[in-house]
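Input chain follows. Return structure tokens only.
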Amino acid sequence: MNEQARLLRRLSAYQFAAWELHIFLDTHPNNCEAARKLEEIQKTVESLTAQYEAAYGPLGESAAQTSRWAWITGPWPWETGEEES
């Protein structure tokens, strides 16, 4: 597994944890520990997203995009020279 895949997998895990905590807080709105943990995880998600986008380009719709045509500036998948495994 390359560094890009590792970073994306880590980001996905934190996004999943944030979503699960969000659902938990729907049924336990007074749980301060869960709310604190959700804020902590959301900061980590933002940091990992910024790190990924800085290295590999935007993930879908992103605030980091400055132009609606930003997606076209990077190399196309067949131009990277890597075969997907």
